[in-house]
């Protein structure tokens, strides 16, 4: 069940990144500054993308591992272990469900980050040169 260790490690990394972003946002609000820097926007976007991919891959690996634990793999002679450890398997399922919500939240956050980044690159302007 090394996939579960990977899931926990990935969630710790994502939580640490989110905490750092939260501190950055609070400091920005206290100082009264907003994000208008393209390089900083790219760093935030890249970090959000990495966290989204990390959490999605960790959930996928843990879900596959949980499926093997629940269903077994007769071709490889892997037995079903959820028959022996039912409570553990229930807790793993709850953890994977929670991690799935976290992963979906990271994907949504990544989309918001992409929107914030690409709006810095202009867009529609009318004949006066003003933004739409």
From TrEMBL:
<comment type="subunit">
    <text>Homodimer and heterodimers.</text>
</comment>
<feature type="signal peptide">
    <location>
        <begin position="1"/>
        <end position="20"/>
    </location>
</feature>
<feature type="transmembrane region" description="Helical">
    <location>
        <begin position="92"/>
        <end position="118"/>
    </location>
</feature>
<feature type="transmembrane region" description="Helical">
    <location>
        <begin position="50"/>
        <end position="71"/>
    </location>
</feature>
<comment type="similarity">
    <text>Belongs to the Casparian strip membrane proteins (CASP) family.</text>
</comment>
<feature type="domain" description="Casparian strip membrane protein">
    <location>
        <begin position="1"/>
        <end position="102"/>
    </location>
</feature>
<keyword id="KW-0732">Signal</keyword>
<keyword id="KW-1003">Cell membrane</keyword>
<keyword id="KW-1133">Transmembrane helix</keyword>
<protein>
    <recommendedName>
        <fullName>CASP-like protein</fullName>
    </recommendedName>
</protein>
<dbReference type="Pfam" id="PF04535">
    <property type="entry name" value="CASP_dom"/>
</dbReference>
<dbReference type="InterPro" id="IPR006459">
    <property type="entry name" value="CASP/CASPL"/>
</dbReference>
<keyword id="KW-0812">Transmembrane</keyword>
<keyword id="KW-0472">Membrane</keyword>
<dbReference type="InterPro" id="IPR006702">
    <property type="entry name" value="CASP_dom"/>
</dbReference>
């Amino acid at each position: 069940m090394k996939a579960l260790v990977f899931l926990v490690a990935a969630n710790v990394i994502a939580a640490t990144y989110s905490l750092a972003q939260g501190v950055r946002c609070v400091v920005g609000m206290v100082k009264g500054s907003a994000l208008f820097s393209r390089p900083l926007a790219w760093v935030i976007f890249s970090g959000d993308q990495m966290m989204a991919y990390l959490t999605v891959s960790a959930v996928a690996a843990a879900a596959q591992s949980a499926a093997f634990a629940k269903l077994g793999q007769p071709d490889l002679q892997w037995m079903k272990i959820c028959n022996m450890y039912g409570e553990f398997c229930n807790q793993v399922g709850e953890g994977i469900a929670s991690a799935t919500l976290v992963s979906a939240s990271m994907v949504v956050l990544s989309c918001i980050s992409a929107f914030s980044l690409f709006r810095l690159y202009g867009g529609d302007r009318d004949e006066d040169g003003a933004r739409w």
